[in-house]
Write a structure and sequence with these properties.
Number of helices: 17
Shape: elongated
Largest sheet: 2 strands, antiparallel
Structural class: mainly alpha
Distance between the termini: 48 Å
Number of domains: 3
Number of strands: 6
CATH superfamily of the largest domain: Fumarase/aspartase (Central domain)
Length: 417
């Protein structure tokens, strides 16, 4: 933070120099100033004002040229422009980390493109699907987050050097333009004493959205790792990962990393609410937002960076139990093929309502008797009158549900052909 403030102060002095206010000799000394936290803390213990203490600390080794430090600008010109630099750097970092995670998801999705698993709705068996498609969906969601971050970066890259209430009474738009160019930021179109907090609210909301997707991934893995399901597991027992699941039960292998992601996601979402509360301020400015931002912006950014890292660790070393996926598919006794049975007999000429009732009746019999739905269809005279045994058996093929997964992946731009 303090080094970003220093960048703003020096860039402002350089701009004053270009405008003929600060002499070259003075600027050459100013450009050598450094920030020292110990000096800052000494002055802060006296003043209890962050920018006054900052200006005093960086001016300490200067002589008459120290009069140019913070010339014509106000505290929030420095702090808000410095915060813009921080947000910009944070977005770049988060975007890079997301790219790493997306690459891991893409690799794993392609590896599992032909792995059939149970698709579930309401926690219940629905229809077969590709396990790779689950991961592809996560990849596509993260891609949208990256696009939103890119848009937010443009709006957050704002330079404000406009004086006490934004009227340029002590500076000028030309000075702001020069400083903006030096800092690779965009000059603010209009401000009061702060850069408006909808920008910071948008940043925080983006973090919350990303965290929610990471929790979505973690929650899916937690469900799949349940003892009764056991289709996928977090890495465990390897170097850098959890090696003990319980202090009292040696057999435990808990989805601890995924649970950690879920917990920290709640914090990030909660912080985003505070960021929205920071948008309405009194008149041209108050500092009710400042104390909250000192907590929520760094905490959310650091927490998100950490759970992106954790998610990538999990996905990269995810243990996939394909045999258990097939076993769970088979546990359905063919019930997950009921929609396809219904469609086939409709296509063979049966009324839609009658077809639904017939397949529902057979499904209930399957549930109560434990007889496989395929066997019930092969024994049903109505269905047998409409198609051959081979045609009936062909309905109950898991591969049928995976035939368009490659097409879906190609629509993501993966070009698997």
């Amino acid at each position: 933070m303090y080094n970003f403030w220093l960048d703003v102060e020096i860039a402002t002095c350089e701009a004053w120099n270009e405008m003929g206010v600060i002499p070259d000799e003075d600027l050459s000394k100013i450009k050598n100033i450094k920030f020292d936290i110990k000096k800052y803390e000494k002055y802060f213990s006296e003043t209890k004002h962050d920018i006054v203490s900052f200006v005093k600390s960086i001016s300490e080794n200067l002589e008459k040229e120290s009069r140019w430090i913070h010339h014509g600008i106000t505290s929030n010109d420095v702090k808000d422009t410095g915060l813009s630099l921080q947000l910009k750097a944070s977005i770049d970092h988060i975007s890079n980390e997301l790219e790493i995670l997306m690459n891991s998801l893409q690799r794993k999705a392609i590896e599992e493109i032909d792995t059939p698993c149970v698709g579930r709705s309401h926690g219940m068996h629905a229809e077969p699907m590709s396990f790779g498609a689950k991961l592809g969906i996560f990849w596509d969601e993260l891609k949208r987050h990256k696009a939103r971050l890119s848009e937010t970066k443009e709006r957050a890259s704002i330079c404000m050097i406009s004086g006490p209430v934004g009227s340029y009474a002590t500076v000028s738009p030309e000075l702001e333009k020069i400083v903006s160019k030096k800092l690779n930021l965009i000059p603010a179109k209009i401000t009061n004493q702060v850069i408006q907090r909808d920008i910071h609210g948008e940043y925080s909301q983006n973090l919350a959205l990303i965290a929610s997707t990471l929790e979505k991934i973690a929650l899916e893995i937690r469900h799949l790792q349940r003892s009764e399901v056991d289709e996928a597991r977090e890495p465990f027992g390897k170097k850098g990962f959890v090696t003990k699941g319980s202090s009292s039960m040696p057999h435990k292998r808990n989805p601890e990393l995924s649970e950690r992601i879920c917990g920290l996601s709640r914090i990030i979402r909660s912080n985003s609410s505070a960021a929205l509360e920071n948008i309405p301020l009194w008149h041209e400015r108050d500092i009710s937002h400042s104390s909250a931002e000192r907590i929520i912006l760094p905490d959310s950014s650091i927490a998100l960076d950490y759970i992106i890292f954790l998610t990538n660790q999990i996905i990269s070393d995810l243990e996939i139990n394909r045999e258990k996926m097939l076993e769970n598919l088979d546990k359905a006794k063919g019930l997950i093929f009921s929609p396809r049975v219904m469609l086939k007999i409709i296509e063979a000429g049966m009324d839609k309502s009658e077809a639904y009732d017939l397949v529902q009746s057979l499904s209930m019999e399957c549930l109560s008797s434990g007889t496989n739905l395929e066997d019930l269809c092969l024994q049903n005279n109505i269905i047998k009158s409409m198609m051959t045994n081979n045609e009936i058996s062909e309905i109950f093929d898991y591969k049928f549900y995976l035939r368009f997964t490659k097409h879906q992946f190609n629509s993501l731009g993966w070009n698997l052909d």
